Amino acid sequence: MASIDLNADVGEECGNDIALFDVVTTANVAAGGHAGGGPILIETVATCAARKVAVGAHPSYPDRENFGRLSRHDEYESKALTDLIRTQILDVAAACAASGTTLTHVKAHGALYHDIAREPAAADAFLAAVLDVARDIDADLYVTGSPNSSLQAGAQARDIAFVTEAFIDRLYHPDGTLAPRSQPNAVHADPQMALAQAISIALEGCVQASDGTVIDLNAQTLCVHGDSPDAVAMARAVHRQLTEQGVIISPIARVVD
């Protein structure tokens, strides 16, 4: 029987996190770079723990003005980038420990997500931070990211579990990358369109790209952006339809890739 994880980016001071926690199985908690942090981070993790939602860290470039969606890769040497990411992951890990839950994974946000997918050096810096924290808290952390990316290659080379992710609310290019948000129709505003995409990915391992072609897209987890206007409606519809078709919706406690 098919199984898939539903994840959402939360603790970003927008959207309806509480409603999402009734539907998703995994949360990526903003760590203060693009949003959240501090009391919001602590409260979000505590709520995840109470709702039995798996918790991951969601680090980003420090860029609240642009919600972390502007690349700052050129501003950081490798060690500085590792230190930046490590600090944010540790903040989420500390909140997990205080709430009696366990940090399970790390997923980058926004421009950082795309930079580590494309740039091996950025991916190396990111993975170094993950490994550092894993040693510090004595935990096996998995990494979430795009299939066939520099991040996946780097994780596999370091024996870090890698979970492939797809987005239900974003348009894909024929090469499997996401269409930039600046491009028209890059974000699916219609919940039915997002639902159709989620079902196609979960059940058939493929998605219709921007040019109309159908491309392979195998994913172990589906993401709903918490800041999307219809995020809750999308998540509920996806959860209901997949469950009705016999798909088990469950968190990824540990993945061996």
Describe the structure.
The model has no long low-confidence stretch (mean pLDDT about 95). This protein has helices at about 15-20, 40-50, 80-100, 110-120, 120-135, 150-155, 190-205, 230-245; strands spanning about 5-10, 25-30, 55-60, 105, 140-145, 160-165, 205-210, 215, 220-225, 250. The protein starts with a strand and ends in an 8-residue tail after the last strand. It has a single domain (about 5-250), classed as TIM Barrel (Alpha-Beta Barrel), CATH 3.20.20. The radius of gyration is 17 Å and the shape is globular. Helix content is about 40%, strand content about 15%. Helix 1 links the parallel strand 1 and strand 2. Helix 2 packs across helix 3, helix 3 packs parallel to helix 5 (about 120-135) and helix 5 packs across helix 6. It has a 7-stranded parallel β-barrel, surrounded by 5 helices. The protein contains 8 helices and 10 strands. It is α/β, with parallel strands linked by helices and about 260 residues long.
Topology:
Elements: E1 3-10, H1 17-21, E2 26-30, H2 38-51, E3 54-58, H3 78-99, E4 103-106, H4 110-118, H5 120-137, E5 142-145, H6 150-157, E6 162-167, H7 191-204, E7 206-208, E8 214-216, E9 221-224, H8 231-244, E10 248-249
Parallel strand pairs: 1-2, 1-9, 1-10, 2-3, 3-4, 4-5, 5-6, 6-9
Antiparallel strand pairs: 7-8
Helix pairs in contact: 2-3, 3-5, 4-5, 5-6, 7-8
Please tally the β strands and state the result: 10
The parts where pLDDT drops under 50 for at least 5 residues are none
Mean pLDDT: 94
Tell me the name of the CATH class: Alpha Beta
Strand proportion, as a percent range, falls in 15-25%
Overall, the morphology is globular
Give me the CATH superfamily. Glycoside hydrolase/deacetylase
Structural category: alpha/beta
